[in-house]
## 1
Amino acid sequence: MAIFNQTHLTGQIQAHNMTSGLGLPLPGVLCEYRAFPADGLVAVPDFMSDEEACNLPIASLTAWMAINGMRPLGQPAQGGETVLIQGTGGVAIAGLQIAHAAGLKTIVTSSSDEKLEKARKMGADFTINYRTTAGWESEVMRVTGDKGADIIFENGGAQTLRKSFDCIAFGGLINCIGYLSGKEDVSEDKLHTNVLALRRNVTLKGILNGPKDRFEEMTQFYERHQIRPVVDRTFKFDEAKEALKYLYSGGHFGKVVVKVAE
Ligand SMILES: NC(=O)c1ccc[n+]([C@@H]2O[C@H](COP(=O)([O-])OP(=O)(O)OC[C@H]3O[C@@H](n4cnc5c(N)ncnc54)[C@H](OP(=O)(O)O)[C@@H]3O)[C@@H](O)[C@H]2O)c1
């Protein structure tokens, strides 16, 4: 498996590592043949198919870093915390699998009751429909006994960050991963981020994938727990455009895969 920023092998990402990003600025991996420096590769776990393994470098590693990136290498989470996961896309479902296997309590939000049902079948402890429950942050507080979530996957951005600050536990960690609902604050009450962060002693952490040693740490965890990434649908190589359209439609649960060769 190719690591995203090819020179990011350990520790905090630096500006120079970002010049080695696959897809940005280097060519991406939607191709049939590609040569990589050995340093930029991680071995596929024996029990996984290629269709499953191709989900690990971006979605799974990002989720792994959201849960474990602030902990020492080799000492991943072992239960006792609650994780709030926004949505049911690739990063979110990888996060659910990792958190559940680590014994953490999980809360998943989605716009679809059908997807929430699937999340519960995978072990999600609480699920909330963010379309029908606009005040989902109050629901998070309720199901956590007014404590809030210890770790939040902030995938929404504009329409979710303020709510995340309202349902984070004291001392909790908000991982800024994506901005699926936009980049600009749309809330009426525009409290500054510094006030929101100090109010509950929150750590706000930007996530930019992760380094190779963390990727290997995660792969061992997947092996130990025999976690198989959730592939919603697999497209043929010459159907890549349809695959992207399907991804943008948001109908998927987990990952969308393009198979390079039969
Ligand atoms: N920082 C990094 O290193 C990194 C790495 C990978 C991805 N990302 C970013 O992280 C985000 C998620 O990536 P992904 O690959 O998981 O994307 P994805 O598979 O396309 O996720 C789409 C899902 O996100 C959910 N969603 C959309 N708007 C939402 C909202 N307002 N509130 C809550 N959930 C919402 C929807 O779930 P439902 O259908 O269930 O409603 C949607 O199906 C993207 O913005 C992506 O660019 C960042």
Note: The two ends are 18 Å apart (CA to CA).
## 2
Amino acid sequence: MLNQFIIKLISAQKVLDIGVYTGASSLASALVVPPEGKVYSLEKSIKFAQIAQENFKKYEVSDRINLIIGDASKSLEHLCQEGHSGTFDFSYIDADKTNYPTYFNLSLQLLRQGGVLAVDNTLFKGKVFDLDNRVGQQIDNANKTFISSGAVDVLLLNIGDGYTLMRKR
Ligand SMILES: C[S@@+](CC[C@H](N)C(=O)[O-])C[C@H]1O[C@@H](n2cnc3c(N)ncnc32)[C@H](O)[C@@H]1O
């Protein structure tokens, strides 16, 4: 998967995974970080978190994953307050679209300079061009937030459902 390739490319050790569901993206990251690496996985649903935890056990990567249950914005704020700012190498955003700008800003704070941010669904099946569509509007707003921040180099890849790659300046 593309996230794994990027994690290997930049030798990432500390990874944020925002939106876990049953654990696929966290698992993919945990399988490629070094043994001393850590994936911080943020999920609000207790039910999905439990399923993900079982999958992490099955693949023997539980020791490399810190699963944090709760609203991701709050969890990211806590990480900032706990002194993690500027320490993450890679952040992957794949949760509720309305909060993408918040996840972007907090991820930026948590990433080191040169750290990489990846965002999924940034074309949203083309609906990003349909501004009568609510989620299309949310994604459009997020894309504009990324570009106008001036804090990142941005590359929107038209693969899958749209995957935006950014590097913190
Ligand atoms: C598209 S799924 C994530 C898929 C996962 N990254 C993967 O690759 O399999 C989105 C997840 O974000 C979670 N989510 C939605 N809103 C959230 C929030 N405010 N805080 C934390 N997680 C949230 C949902 O419960 C869902 O599990």
Note: The two ends are 25 Å apart (CA to CA).
